[in-house]
Amino acid sequence: MPNLPSSSPSLTTLTSLPPELLHQILTHIPKSDLPSIRLLNHTFETLAFSILFRNLLNWLDYKTSHAAVVALALDVCERPSGMWSPWASEPEGE
């Protein structure tokens, strides 16, 4: 029986792609699967890590993280109290 090509690409074929293309491919994979993909090899570990933790660098920078926390606090303070009330309901007659 002749050797038929596999229907799924091999890891070697995937890793021969440019890192930019692999990164684009990995952005379409559910984030819950990325930790497992990090275990495949160094290339996938690096690419998946950058997707999983892309926002981490923003939080490591004090000025950026402080500004985000202040903006969140101001947003909460400026919202009408009815938005946070568990007893809030729709206006009658609509």
What can you see in these coordinates?
This protein is mostly helical. It has a domain at 17-78. The protein is built from six helices and no strands. It has helices at 11-15, 19-26, 34-37, 42-52, 56-60, 62-78. The radius of gyration is 23 Å and the shape is elongated. The termini are far apart.
> How much helix, percentage-wise, in residues?
40-55%
Please identify the structural class as seen in this structure.
Answer: mainly alpha
| Strand elements, count | 0
Low-pLDDT segments: none
Condensed summary:
By secondary structure, the protein is mainly alpha-helical.
Which helices and strands occur, and which strands form pairs?
Layout: H1 11-15, H2 19-26, H3 34-37, H4 42-52, H5 56-60, H6 62-78
Helix pairs in contact: 2-4
Keyword list:
94 residues, elongated, mainly alpha, 6 helices, 0% strand
